[in-house]
Amino acid sequence: MSKRKKEATDSNAAKVRDEHDGTVSLLEFLPETTNDNQQVEFSPNLSVDRFLLFFFFNAVMSTELRDVVPAHFVLKIKSFSLFAKKNMEKYESGEFEAGGYKWKLILYPNGDKSRNGEDHVSVYLAVSGMSPFQLGWEIRPFQLGWEIHAVVRLSVYDQTCDRYFTVQGRVARFHALKTEWGVPRYMPLKTFTNPSNGYLVDDTCVFGVEVFVIKSSGVGECLMLKESAPYTHQWRISRLSSLGDESFSDVFTAGDHKWKVWLFPKGNLANRGQSLSMFLVLVDADNLASGQKMNVRFILRLKDQNNIIRGQQGCTTAWFSSSAPNCGWHTFMPLKTVGTCLMEDSCVIQAQVIVLGTVNKLP
Questions:
Q1: Are 195 and 55 part of one and the same domain?
Q2: What does the alpha-carbon distance between residue 274 and residue 265 come to, in Å, rounded to a whole number?
Q3: Which residues form the MATH domain (predicted)?
Q4: Cα-flanking dihedrals φ and ψ of residue 340, to 5°?
Q5: CB-based contacts of 229, cutoff 8 Å, min separation 6
Q6: What global pTM score does this model have?
Q7: End-to-end CA gap in the chain
Q8: Angle CA 116–122–127, to nearest 5
Q9: Quick check: 151 pLDDT over 90?
Q10: Are residues 108 and 89 in the same domain?
Q11: Are 13 and 53 in contact (CB under 8 A)?
Q12: How many CA atoms lie within 13 A of 25 on its CB side?
């Protein structure tokens, strides 16, 4: 086991604090690792409690060694040892902005003893003062009802490896009763102050923080599945060739909506004179709300006067909406085939429709 990892795992276990306290402890629960990818090899001396605690913290925290400098704020400290000599228990950084809010990095160089951080470096992120909002207003974010949700990454620079040891927690919730989040036992002082570990070199160290505020865009949708039986509509045509360029069936109801079949006996667009074209049309599409759409499975068939299927496309599932009110085939069936299949120019157009569900925008 490396010296650094042994110092980390030999640290005394901290009490598990209530999640609403906003603080967690990590390094003292890490098992032995074999490389930077942290392939786990559990020590035979790892107790059941520490084993379970490791998995608890693994569920809410993650760690990594990374090359990238923290994006939002970096704190460089020279003469770190003077914190203890001058009895400075706490340092609050200047304000910085991230995600539309102002923040401060808080450091307890010799541990936050009020949160069981003795003999450790304690690091926190706190919301600071006034935070800018839209329209140029400045209001305190922690008036009744205000909350901020953010992903926080706390880092310390390994000057030997030129990499940042970074701890990321689950989504932190800031509000009037919890204005900070952090790790009271971020790193054992024995580990941090050992120059061979690279965190404190020539009495100088570097901490950093990234804050990614989660803001709801208000965009969403509700899918409501429907349990309905398929509806079959039949349109009898005595003389197909007598129809005009286009023709519509009678309106029928399926899934609480009105439909009709749109037929081009001689084809439409570029297929005119070559193929019969056929579509299913949602008649009341204009009545759908903005963003509302319907998922529909349907089959269109062409039958002869003896009710024998002469033309059919495969079962199709499509979305219908006010901007897409129809679906079907420009080349449903070649006109030559239609002419040879139908006796006396009569036929039946059959539409089988089932509404699978509807989607609406969330209010």
A1: yes
A2: 10
A3: 70-211, 230-353
A4: -80, -20
A5: 354
A6: 0.59
A7: 56
A8: 110
A9: yes
A10: yes
A11: yes
A12: 26
Letter for the amino acid at 284?
D
Number of structural domains in the chain: 2
Residue 181: how many CB atoms within 10 A of its CB?
Answer: 22
Specify the pairing of strand 180-188 against strand 120-127: antiparallel
What are 298-333's pLDDT values in tens digits? 999 999 988 999 999 889 999 999 999 999 999 999
Which of 198, 214, 230 finishes a domain? 214
Token pair of 81 as six digits: 């040892």
Residues 20 and 163 in one domain: yes
Query: Which domain, by its residues, includes 180?
Result: 3-214
SS3 336: helix
Q: Which residues pair with 357 in a beta bridge?
A: 225, 295
- Residue 349 structure tokens: 């157009």
pLDDT tens, 76-85?
999 999 999 9
Written as one letter, the residue type at 355 is V
Is 230 in the same domain as 344? yes
DSSP bridge partners of 233: 351
Q: Report pLDDT digits (tens) over 344-357.
A: 889 999 999 999 99
Instruction: Report the alpha-carbon distance of residue 211 to residue 124 in Å, rounded.
Output: 12
Cβ–Cβ under 8 Å, residues 197 and 337: no
Q: What is the DSSP string of 300-327?
A: EEEE-TTS-EEEEPPPEEEEEESS--EE
CATH number for 61: 2.60.210.10
Q: Which of 197, 214, 231 is the last residue of a domain?
A: 214
Contact partners, residue 43, CB within 8 Å, separation at least 6: 1, 9, 31, 32
Same structural domain, 268 and 335: yes
